[in-house]
Specification:
The protein contains nine helices and seven strands. By secondary structure, it is α/β, with parallel strands linked by helices. The strands form two sheets. A five-stranded parallel β-sheet has the order 2-1-3-4-5, with helices on both faces. Helix 8 crosses helix 9.
């Protein structure tokens, strides 16, 4: 018998963002979107009808702050987990999300790899908790320190072995090309400049974003998928 899917409710007033979350969540095995709300009031009304396993919750909602909604969920729907997805990057909001028991906190503009890995990690945590009636301290430590397994902010020079799929010489070429311009560029622009495929360049750019050598902004157009533009961060340049 197959496992019961992890049910998801999206609470997001940006229609384009909500569609992106739905699209990529549906690509993950074992997840099922069951509802989408655009306001806090609408979300609370839905929660009296359907009970998702996890909420993907924005902070900036038209009628209330997402942290207040998180508190309401904790008060009345304690069995629901919450992943915050928001542009709010102030320390106090993050602190309140932690106090409110959020499982994770993703800052916009989101990286799709980060979004999907967070949901996969959440699914793995649920499986571990469902497979046992008791648990030892080592296993508990791993569950409560999941953030410690996320790659830390560092430059490539401090890493003995690069991640799988990242070649040292290709990485240097991408770095050099990014440093040649002060303008933001998308993966297609850089691919043409470097003479590489879009998929290869995108992989290296996302790696540089993950170690804070490159910043990324997402632009939502009226047609087609969102465009991600990358910019080199001079103070993080490799020596």
């Amino acid at each position: 018998m197959s496992e019961k899917p992890i049910t998801v409710m999206i609470v997001e007033d940006d229609e384009i963002a909500a569609r992106i979350y739905e699209q990529f969540t549906s690509k993950l095995e074992g997840f099922q979107i069951i509802a989408t709300a655009t306001t806090g009031k609408q979300a609370l009304e839905m929660l009296h009808v359907v009970t998702p396993d996890v909420l993907l919750l924005d902070i900036y909602l038209p009628d209330m702050n997402g942290i207040d909604l998180l508190r309401e969920v904790r008060k009345h729907f304690r069995g629901i987990d919450v992943v915050m997805i928001t542009a709010a990057n102030d320390v106090e909001t993050v602190r309140e999300a932690i106090r409110g028991g959020a499982y994770s906190y993703i800052i916009k503009p989101i990286m799709i790899d980060k979004f999907m890995s967070t949901l996969e990690q959440y699914a793995n945590t649920r499986r571990q908790l469902q497979q046992h009636t008791t648990i030892d301290q080592t296993a508990v430590d791993k569950l409560f320190t999941k953030a410690a397994h996320t790659p830390a902010t560092k430059t490539v020079e401090t890493v003995a072995t690069l991640p799988k799929g990242i070649d040292k010489l290709t990485l240097k070429l991408i770095r050099d090309k990014m440093q040649e311009t002060t303008q933001s560029m998308n993966a297609d622009d850089l691919a043409a400049l470097a003479g590489m495929s879009h998929s290869t360049v995108r992989r290296y750019l996302e790696f540089l974003v993950s170690i804070n050598e490159v910043t990324v902004e997402t632009f939502y157009g009226t047609v087609g998928r969102p465009e991600r533009k990358y910019r080199w961060v001079p103070q993080k340049a490799a020596k």
